[in-house]
Amino acid sequence: MTRGDPFPIELGGGAVVRRYVMDDLDALWAVASGERERLGEWMPWVESTTSIDVQRRWLTKVVDDLDGFDGCGIFVDGELAGGVGLSSDPYGITGEIGYWVREPFEGRGFVTSASLEFTRLAFEHLGLNRVVIRAGVGNQRSRAVPERLGYVEEGLERGAGRGLGGFYDIVVYAMLAEEWRDRPQ
Ligand SMILES: CC(C)(COP(=O)(O)OP(=O)(O)OC[C@H]1O[C@@H](n2cnc3c(N)ncnc32)[C@H](O)[C@@H]1OP(=O)(O)O)[C@@H](O)C(=O)NCCC(=O)NCCS
């Protein structure tokens, strides 16, 4: 386990993951309002992010939480390309990674690279025992991310997700610390 703040994390190709700052508010709101239909299909926070004030309240919370890893952005040549976060239980056992990417940056590997680095962060920085990625059954692009990284598909949570189209089933993927240690290099 290492100490200190791990950010910024270089992903290569001009991409970096760093904590959000309050100056990212306008860029975040532009995404939440401009890509509402696309992101809202799978992400429940889009439905409730109805104004820049709601966005500001969320941003203030994550910016203030310097011990947390929930509020980070993927920036490509300084431009907001996507979001990635890791939330963990209070006992340091399990964490969950979530992500999204703006349409112009989709299909370029930034989310897989960021998720790999957040998996590393969870095991090597935080010392967690288990990391989870949950994706809608029909969200093939999202499911491909943990599958590419060697996460194990564990099962189905019925009706556990909600997007603008209503409730959907979620596939749970997980990796254990021992699987991370023994992963093929
Ligand atoms: C789900 C989502 C984040 C996936 O984004 P993505 O851009 O497909 O994922 P990645 O950044 O890992 O890119 C993967 C693609 O880049 C390619 N790629 C290029 N370089 C790569 C690299 N170094 N590493 C991995 N993939 C690479 C892969 O082959 C893959 O290509 P494909 O689209 O032809 O299959 C995105 O579709 C999204 O934001 N959707 C809406 C919100 C959402 O569903 N969020 C998840 C909720 S669980």
The third-level CATH topology is Aminopeptidase
Q: Count up the helices.
A: 7
* Structural class based on helices, strands and sheet pairing: alpha+beta
Secondary-structure element series:
EEHHHHEEEHEHEEH
Total number of β-strand segments? 8
Tell the overall outline: globular
**CATH first level: which class?**
Alpha Beta
Helix content: 25-40%
Could you please describe the fold and organization of this structure?
This protein is of the alpha+beta class and 185 residues long. The chain has one domain: Gcn5-related N-acetyltransferase (GNAT) (Aminopeptidase). It has helices spanning 25-34, 36-40, 44-48, 52-64, 110-125, 140-148, 177-181, and strands at residues 9-12, 15-19, 69-76, 79-88, 94-101, 130-136, 152-163, 166-176. Strands 1-2-3-4-5-6-8-7 form an 8-stranded mixed sheet, with helices on both faces. Helix 1 (25-34) packs across helix 4. The protein is globular and about 45 Å long. Bound molecules: coenzyme A. Coenzyme A (COA) binds at residues 38-39, 42-43, 99-101, 106-113, 135, 139, 141-142, 145, 148.
Helix and strand topology:
Layout (H helix, E strand, L loop, with lengths): L8 E4 L2 E5 L5 H10 L1 H5 L3 H5 L3 H13 L4 E8 L2 E10 L5 E8 L8 H16 L4 E7 L3 H9 L3 E12 L2 E11 H5 L4
Parallel strand pairs: 5-6
Antiparallel strand pairs: 1-2, 2-3, 3-4, 4-5, 6-8, 7-8
Helix pairs in contact: 1-4
Bound molecules: coenzyme A.
